[in-house]
Specification:
Blueprint lengths: L3 E4 L10 E4 L46 E6 L5 E5 L12 H11 L5 E3 L19 E3 H9 L4 H12 L2 H14 L21 H12 L2 H7 L3 E4 L7 E4 L4 H4 L3 E9 L3 E10 L2 E10 L3 H16 E7 L4 E7 L2 E7 L3 E6 L6 E7 L12 E9 L2 E10 L15 H19 L4
Antiparallel strand pairs: 1-2, 3-4, 3-11, 5-6, 7-8, 9-10, 10-11, 12-15, 13-14, 14-18, 16-17, 17-18
Length: 421
């Protein structure tokens, strides 16, 4: 492993970060070093690194030390890298992403929460709420998502769900609504370690969360002051070190418990490309190194390619002996690894049970695009023009018609050859 620093990209470059070997542990340009970790009332289990260690750029995926990981497009969910992505694991404070989603769906940012005693002193990370304190949803969300405050998680759960168990039930209904089939929550903060999820499910949950503007704003914030009932405000600092160390990072969340290990979800953008990386079960600062290495791989080795254009001719199908010319019903844009750009293939798959007649613009199948056997995506295929049912064959003579015809023929034969018959 080489010691590297991340430098800012050049305008128009296709690579998010230029990786340069250096003997220095510092950073250059807009890449800054996180200030010393804020030590809250109960200390912090997440000391910040000051430099990233990532391998040199390569078409081969980087080695990842985490137990599970996934790299996806933040827009489409297209998967660029997986490691045990469907393995069920405790996810520690990444749980708080679902807590934040439910709170934002149920409450305005200005809604005032009254803190109850059951929220106090939930170790190890708290923002120092006090019994009876009145505090807005906005301030609790900053405490929840930056400081990873467990007391804020319980206060929010009690306010939205009425009780913490009722809120946990809401969390699991929310997971089902998002089709997170390998996810089960047992608390609003993830401290229990009986809840679980997967890297793939957590990426899907994060995509849903980032569609909420308030969530996106909070997780992109480096530092914030949470007002206190008396005295100075409570300063909270985002524990996602990539916000300082990796250009283009705009979230999302860290987590740690002994069974879960170090966990990280980070999102970064370069131009119109956005990626999400999920790291589960890593050790110490390796979560940030692994996250940065995967982001480098995604931005450096994949290009955004328009694979299908809306209205493009995609071939023809034969239904009932009649040809149907098909057009793409939508565009398809995907990230393609640059060594596979020339290996992209397209196939037209008819809709099962398709019969005539077919109207112009009717969906008749799907255009499936793949490279090296990996499906990159698909879009509907529609009929270019209407195709009618084939004409029916002339009806066969009925039995009575046949009998009449035979009788007429017999009469004709008797009249002509009567004396010989």
């Amino acid at each position: 492993m080489r010691r590297l620093r991340v430098l800012p990209w050049a305008a128009g470059s296709t690579v998010l970060a230029i990786i340069v070997v250096t003997a220095s542990a510092g950073a250059s340009g807009p890449v800054s070093t996180p200030p010393p970790t804020f030590v809250g009332p109960s200390g912090s289990p997440s000391p910040f690194p000051t430099v990233l260690h990532t391998p040199a750029s390569s078409l081969r995926p980087p080695p990842i030390h985490a137990q599970a990981a996934v790299l996806e497009s933040a827009v489409t969910g297209q998967v660029l890298f997986v490691k045990s992505a469907d393995q069920r694991r405790p996810v520690a404070s990444l749980t708080k992403i679902m807590t934040a989603i439910l709170v934002l769906q149920a409450r305005s940012l200005g809604h005032v929460v009254t803190v109850h005693a059951d929220a106090l002193g939930v170790q190890p990370s708290t923002v120092g709420l006090v019994d009876g304190e009145r505090i807005t949803i906005r301030n609790l969300l900053y405490a929840l998502l930056l400081q990873s405050a467990n007391d804020a998680a319980v206060a929010l759960a009690d306010d939205v769900g009425g009780t913490t168990p009722a809120f946990v039930a809401m969390m699991n209904r929310g997971a089902a609504d998002l089709h997170l089939t390998h996810t089960r929550f047992r608390s609003p903060n993830g401290l229990d370690d009986r809840g679980y999820s997967t890297a793939r499910n957590m990426a899907a949950l994060t995509r849903a969360a980032l569609r909420l503007p308030a969530f996106a704003k909070v997780v992109a914030t480096k530092q914030y002051d949470v007002p206190a009932p008396t005295g100075p405000p409570r300063h909270v600092q985002n524990r996602n070190a990539l916000l300082w160390l990796y250009p283009g990072t705009y979230g999302v969340k860290t987590g740690f418990t002994s069974p879960a290990g170090h966990c990280l979800i980070s999102a970064a953008r370069h131009g119109d490309r956005r990626l999400i990386v999920v790291i589960l079960g890593d050790v110490e600062d390796d979560a940030f190194d692994d996250g940065a290495a995967l982001l480098n791989y995604g931005f450096g080795e994949f290009s955004k390619v328009r694979l299908v254009t809306d209205g493009q001719d995609v071939g023809s199908l034969t239904v009932g002996g009649q040809p149907i010319e098909a057009l793409a019903g939508a565009a398809l844009v995907r990230l393609v690894r640059r060594d596979r750009a020339g290996e992209v293939g397209r196939s037209l798959v008819p809709t099962p049970g398709l019969v005539l007649p077919v109207a112009a613009g009717e969906v008749v199948g799907r255009v499936v695009v793949e490279a090296r056997g990996v499906v990159l995506g698909s879009v509907p295929a529609v009929a270019r023009s209407a195709v009618a049912s084939p004409p029916l064959p002339p009806p066969s003579p009925t039995g009575s018609q046949m009998d009449g015809g035979v009788a007429v023929l017999a009469e004709l034969l008797r009249a002509t050859f009567g004396s010989f018959l």
